[in-house]
Design goal:
This protein is mainly alpha-helical and about 110 residues long. Helices cover about 40% and strands about 5% of the residues. It has a single domain (about 5-100), classed as Winged helix-like DNA-binding domain superfamily/Winged helix DNA-binding domain (Arc Repressor Mutant, subunit A), CATH 1.10.10. The strands form two sheets. The chain has a two-stranded parallel sheet with strand order 1-2. Strands 3-4 form a two-stranded antiparallel ribbon. Helix 1 (about 5-15) packs across helix 3 (about 40-50) and helix 2 crosses helix 3. It binds a DNA duplex (13 and 13 nucleotides) through helix 1, helix 2, helix 3 and strand 2.
Length: about 110
DNA sequence: GGAGTGACGCGGC
DNA sequence: AGCCGCGCCACTC
């Protein structure tokens, strides 16, 4: 049987894949949507593994303040910002402008 | 087997 | 108001 952690990772990927273009979400929101608001760190870890995938728009995932914390993990440090701007999101100093306006809330599987 | 790290979040000082 | 530390979960050395 699959390990729980593995299933958690899979959920994260599935959720991130549901993020529409021009929208962004936070690690905490994803973790909370999965029923583990304290596992926000694990979400970030999952995204690190998402590098082997290509269906996971990790560039649409930022931290709770809308800062591109994981931009350094992309092919290029500016790739994340470029992708977001391409989708219509304005980035200022590695920070998303009108973050709440572009924030996308994932469907809560809990209820 | 223990300690440290990390794409986070919140609270305390 | 900003700066510092702790908690939490998973993974690696």
């Amino acid at each position: 049987m699959s390990s729980k952690s593995e299933d958690f990772f899979k959920k994260v990927y599935a959720l991130v894949r549901l993020i529409p273009e021009g929208k962004v979400t936070t690690y905490g929101e994803i973790a909370k949507a999965l029923g583990a608001p304290k596992s926000s760190r694990v979400v970030g870890y999952a995204m690190n593994n998402s590098h082997q995938l290509d269906d996971v728009p990790a560039h649409r995932v930022v931290n709770r303040i809308g800062v591109l914390t994981g931009k350094h993990h992309f092919s290029s440090s500016d790739a994340m910002q470029q992708l977001l701007e391409e989708e219509g999101i304005s980035i200022k100093n590695d920070q998303v402008e009108n973050f709440e306006q572009h924030l996308w809330k994932p469907p809560q599987t809990d209820k």
